[in-house]
Specification:
The complex is a heterotrimer of chains A (about 575), B (about 325) and C (about 180). Chain A has about 575 residues and is an all-alpha fold. Chain A has a single domain, classed as Cytochrome c oxidase-like, subunit I domain (Cytochrome C Oxidase, Chain A), CATH 1.20.210.10. Chain A is built from 18 helices and two strands. Chain A has a two-stranded antiparallel ribbon. In chain A, about 65% of the residues are buried. Chain B is an alpha+beta fold and about 325 residues long. Chain B has eight helices and 13 strands. Chain C has six helices and no strands. The chains are: A mainly alpha (about 575), B alpha+beta (about 325), C mainly alpha (about 180). The interface between A and B is large, with 91 and 87 residues.
Chain lengths: ~575, ~325, ~180
Amino acid sequence: MSDEIRSVTGGDELVVPEPTETTSAIWESEGLFGWVSSVDHKQIGIMYLIVTLFFFIVGGIESLLMRIQLAQPNGTFLSPEAYNQIFTMHGTTMIFLVVMPVLIGFANYLVPLMIGARDMAFPRLNALSLWLLVFGGLFLYFSFLTQGGAPAAGWFSYAPLSEKPYSSLTGMDYWAIGLLITGIGTVATAVNLIVTIVALRAPGLTMRRLPLFVWMVLVNSFLIIFALSILNASLVMILADRFLNARFFTPASGGSAILWQHLFWGFGHPEVYIMVLPAFGIMSEVIPVFSRKPIFGYEFVAGSTVAIGLLSFGVWAHHMFTTGMGHTLDGAFGAASMLIAVPTGVKVFNWTATMWGGSIRFTTSMLFAIAFLVQFTVGGLSGVHFAAVPIDWQTTDTYYVVAHFHYVLFGGTAFGIMAGAYYWFPKITGRMLSEGWGKVNFWLMLIGFNLTFFVQHILGLIGMPRRVYTYPNLPYWGILNLVSTVGAFILALSVIVFIWNVIISLRRGKPAGNNPWDAWTLEWATTSPPPAHNFDSVPPVRGRRPLWDLSHPDEADKGGLADG
Amino acid sequence: MINLISSPFNPSSPQASSITNLFYVALVISALIFIIVTGSLIYIMVRYRSRPGDGEPKQVLGGKGIEIAWTVVPLLILTFLFAYTVYTMQKADPSPDPYQQPDILVIGHQWWWEVHYPKSGVVTANEVHLPVGKRFLVLLKSADVIHDFWVPQLARKMDTVPGHPNTIWLEADKAGIYLGACSEYCGTQHAWMRIRVVAQPQADFDEWQQEQLRVPATPTVGEEARGAQIFQERTCANCHAIAGTIANGRIGPDLTHIGDRQTIGAGVIENTPSNLAKWLANTQSVKPGSLMPDMRLSDSEVNALVAYLEGLK
Amino acid sequence: MVERNRLGVIIFIISEANFFLMLILAYVYFHGESSLTAHRYLEPAKTGINTLILLSSSLTVWLAERELKRGGYRRFCAWLLFTIILGAAFLFGQGVEWSGLIDKNVTISSGLFGTTFFTLTGFHGFHVFVGLVALGILFGLALAGDFKGGKSSAVGAISLYWHFVDVVWIVIFSIVYLGVYI
């Protein structure tokens, strides 16, 4: 699938025509109105990053409030009602208003640049998705101001607790409607990304030469298509129950609580892969550049991504091992869940092998990437424990699972996002983030994160259930919780350091130039920040690392040359 | 003797022990993989860190052999783990005979546990008594939302799902008190829906059963009598039952032998006269959100009730 | 450009198809309990006629597209109008069926059949309505002379969506109405 456009000089370079005055006027309108009305993927991407940073701070404050309450046994800092709303909002915020959209924000900014395109396929739809996120998030948070308060049935709103008889006030309605609003925007972005990647690649950029970040975003977008549609269906069903007295999930009137779980986890499980695949993509970009070697096993990394995507739809009921599905179903889902560990492990090994024999540059970005590898491995291994069904029968719904998912989502994805932030901040803003502050950021985050969450494995293993607003004074429960709380504050400090770094670097960071890292993908072939039209001219693409090939004509990559 | 470390690594039943064994195997495998990955990374960071003057390293694109190796080896390890998993599922949670009648019926409520012994007729709440060394089939139901019955040292956890009864085996191989908790978020007071399993030698269990079946005599003198009267006159009987009286409510826990129970409010406080007084005077301050309303009892009414209820042994 | 819009609508259709699949699965999940009500109150023959009306609207929109490519602009507008009329007739027929059921106390809250039936057919009807709005906009633009160029990705995309809505109805009709006979 190659474009017809040839350059005026007849050479290989794709020359993008100068924008006309009208186009310029539209693209480059200044000020707040310019941003709010923007349909430019770069501005929209930046707005995603700002919005999600805001919600990350909100969600983070929620977690600090929880950790203060849990710092000692029989805590009275928060009432149970307040705590339950806060933990529900913390989970809902982090998943729907932070992790998913920040990855979408990165995809939005980077994908057109990485494929040598001018913008996304549907720029206005792109803007709509962003504003649906903002509106949906505000709608959800509006619930705090209402008499019913925020939703308090947990981020997965199990029925019948989430039904009217047990959640009679409006919090749950804000949850369901808010997520429906953002869910529609998310599906629209997935459509946009798929069409962009399939239809707008620069000449020479075949599917087999896609940067792995783009490849992972493509697979991820298909996951979104199939998973978010399941969520949307579940949300309309629970809204039908709550508003129209339908009976989908109310056992007292013939409905099924288990059906809610099947539907929700049918979304929820692919969702966790949606929250990690783009971070895998970031790893696949950052690690090669700072090891000065191409990714080891490109085909296997790409192929294992597809495997994970497909398998992720076959494991959902591993969240339901304690509902009494019977050993046959338990065993089948346990087997599938163990199986999905294989392609995931393949990736970790490939990233490690990429570093082997390389020349490792310990930039802040790389430090975050290395920490990702270790922490994600920890989270992945505890995940395999859960796949061993009887272990799940002991550890699910305890702090062991809280530790597990924070290790993969924070120790994994969030650290991956940090690696991506330090890596691409220069491209987005034209300035380098301070490496000095970056190192402080990294070490505080590393220590804070592990202190907060490692001890939670132990708490789960000595009997502490999750979602409890307080706990009895049993041996070690108090001290371990206190350690976790201290860790959380260190983590909060690391976030403040990051924000400080962003602020000072925006003002007086070292100018970055086009390609401060000597990286190889197309986004580094234009200015930092890129012009409104992205590229004055797109370099010829004959391999997976166009800029490497340009500067090392005798050592161009052999991989990915064959078309198809 | 309360076992304070309620951990799956402190098992006290054949079912829980089989899970512990599986867990040890999984941990050993995990430790090995973790050491390999982290060890490799540490080695790499030292050996391959960039030094000034380094050129670009050899641009290796991949290696089919090793890709196959690190796909197949984990697959084999996981196959072994899965086989041991299936074996443990049978050991930890053997399927009951479909026609077997349950020995214990546990019904989860917001936020307490209703406990019945259908074969003997014993009714209690929040505590399950067992004779040591015998396994009992427990039928798990819910009166409202999904709860989860979990006593880590003795058994797997299992949800109580409205409309979908479940069963587990409960057995203790040593006498003692085993702690547990509701393990499925069920609303405001999910945190204080705790469980105590009291495992006793057979003779002691039989004695306990006898005691539970005995209908306490209604007191006729003193504070106890006044308390009994207040219990009947105030609307306590709407929610609670006491055998031998007209109180027959099933909304809240059965109080026939409340004096014998170790905790009040499903584990939120120890069962002592002063704690019971606190509970009666201001339930919401002890367990905020509890479905027991403020009964607006005067101090003297509280004292009388405490005398009566603590006497119900 | 053409390629983009078509691909976008196809991906969108895939996600909507999955959405409907979940509503259908919910219907099937409760089929045991609700089949009695279905058997008693549904009239597959009547609804079959309504189905034919909707299916013929797929034919007319296909004809419209064909005329547009051939340059038969007037006929294109006519077939487009027929499509809208047939689609509206289908919705009207659905409305009649719904009010009949509600009169007999079969509602979304009356039981498991009502819950799953009204949700499923309701969302289908909503998708038909959105399609009608889109077709209406196309018709308005057509009257204003917008598609004289002969090919239009907008027309292609919206007619693809319209065919999708019909296919979903065929599935619903088979499972809910014909399923009564099983």
